UniProtKB/TrEMBL annotation:
The lineage of its organism: Eukaryota, Viridiplantae, Streptophyta, Embryophyta, Tracheophyta. It comes from Digitaria exilis. This is Kinesin-like protein. GO terms for cellular component: microtubule; phragmoplast. The chain holds residues 87 to 489 of 705 of the full protein. Residues 1-21 have a biased composition (Low complexity). One of its GO terms (molecular function) is ATP binding. Residues 378-403 form a coiled coil. Belongs to the TRAFAC class myosin-kinesin ATPase superfamily. Kinesin family. KIN-12 subfamily. ATP binds at G109, Q110, T111, G112, S113, G114, K115, T116. Residues 22-371 form the Kinesin motor domain.
Length: 403
């Protein structure tokens, strides 16, 4: 790329533009578990799954017309492990990130389909000192990130390569943002930096992380503060969107010529609220309002995916895309059709009783596949800045002389 080709570029020039900025869509069919067993037949055998992986990354759903199966970048089923998911989406995310690309992973799906299991893993696997095979994507991503940072520093020992990672963790619930690292901070506001047009959450706690222990502590703290709402329709459904963000800044100095460059990239790891149609029965007052508001962020995500997919497919100009109509889409607008790589893990249950929701998740996933993002390396070279400063100085001189 032009940016990396300049003389004295201290960062690894291998940073190439994103070869494919399409959204990576992975479907994960979770194994049958205890809740599904209630459906087991009289003969005691488990229920037949209503959805299965077929050859060529296809998903077939029972009762759907043959030849109209859904196709994705990858399909993970009951035999796929947490490590498989990490290899599919986590490893590439870390490499993208080290190359200076913003990168996000969203977990979408109905309650009970395995989103939380996929993104963080069971809490017991996080708190254990031993390395559990059930650890989710997030701890694995950071483990890989720290190890790759060390590798890069060794590889470029001739340059002073420094990294810092700053994390935050928030929840969107009922269209209100709560700081999961400091839960007394509620109803935080989203702001936009007019200069960089960067979107951020005002006064959200930021915490440096240096080791896995730091990351694990943040995760455990944040997840413990996550809210759950109980309704008669869904006793322990997760109605909040959870966003774990890490900004990674690296600076590379070339001691020979004194040049330097900085790169920064942002990782968003997002565990979305359950995508099931909110059942409004028995929900009254605040609960009813809540259901509407929770739907706003998710339905707005669905709307945007439709709009962006249509734009990509038709090659039409982008007019107004309504990012600001919900907290989730405002906050994560860069991940949706913007300057970021996006992977979407669409989690589905194998259960017969979930068939309609599974079908709707697969349709959502198929539309997401059509979106094109526009990811670029976020790099700034000090020589460039100095050259601009010099230019400003000369122009000021000139202006002064003209007076
Ligand atoms: P969601 O966050 O989508 O509501 P969870 O991640 O909480 O769903 O998963 C629901 C239940 O299924 C949990 O008990 C979880 O441990 C289990 N589970 C989900 N996915 C898997 C999997 N791939 N392997 C084993 N258990 C799983
Ligand atoms: Mg969950």
């Amino acid at each position: 790329s032009a940016a990396a080709a300049g003389a004295g570029a201290a960062h690894d020039a291998a940073a190439s533009p994103a070869p494919d900025s399409g959204v990576q869509v992975v479907v994960r069919i979770r194994p049958p578990c205890r809740v599904d067993e209630e459906e087991a037949g009289e003969d005691g055998r488990g229920p037949e799954a209503c959805v299965r992986k077929t050859a060529g990354n296809l998903v077939a759903i029972q009762g759907h017309v043959q030849g109209q199966d859904f196709t994705f970048d990858a399909v993970a089923d009951a035999v796929s492990t947490q490590e498989d998911i990490f290899n599919l989406v986590g490893r590439p995310l870390v490499e993208n990130c080290l190359s200076g690309f913003n990168s996000s992973i969203f977990a979408y799906g109905q309650t009970g389909s395995g989103k939380t299991y996929t993104m963080w893993g069971p809490l017991s696997a996080l708190s254990e000192d031993s390395v559990s095979s059930e650890r989710g994507l997030t701890p694995r991503v950071f483990e890989q990130l720290f190890s790759r940072i060390k590798e890069e520093q060794v590889k470029h020992a001739d340059k002073e390569l420094t990294y810092n990672c700053v994390c935050s963790f928030l929840e969107i619930y009922n269209e209100q943002i709560t700081d999961l690292l400091e839960p007394t901070q509620r109803n935080l506001q989203i702001r936009e930096d007019v200069r960089t047009s960067c979107v951020y959450v005002e006064s959200l706690t930021k915490q440096y992380v240096f080791t896995m222990k730091d990351v694990t502590q943040l995760l455990l703290k944040g997840l413990a503060n996550r809210r759950t709402g109980a309704t008669s329709a869904n006793a322990d459904s997760s109605r909040s969107h959870c966003v774990f963000t890490c900004v990674i800044k690296s600076e590379s100095k070339n001691p020979e010529d004194g040049s330097s460059s900085t790169r920064s990239s942002r990782i968003n790891l997002v565990d979305l609220a359950g995508s099931e149609r909110q059942k409004l029965t028995h929900a009254i007052g605040d609960r009813l309002k809540e259901a509407g508001n929770i739907n706003r962020s998710l339905s707005q995500l669905g709307n945007l995916i439709n709009i962006l997919a249509e734009i990509s497919q038709s090659g039409k100009q982008r007019h107004h895309v309504p990012y600001r109509d919900s907290k989730l889409t405002f906050l994560l607008q860069e991940s949706l059709g913007g300057n970021a790589k996006l992977a979407m893990i669409c989690a589905v249950s194998p259960s017969q009783s979930c068939k309609n929701e599974t079908l709707s998740t697969l349709r959502f996933a198929q539309r997401a596949k059509a979106i094109k993002n526009n990811a670029v390396v976020n790099e700034e070279k000090v020589e460039d800045v100095n050259a601009l400063r010099e230019q400003i100085r000369q122009l000021k001189d000139e202006l002064h002389r003209m007076k």
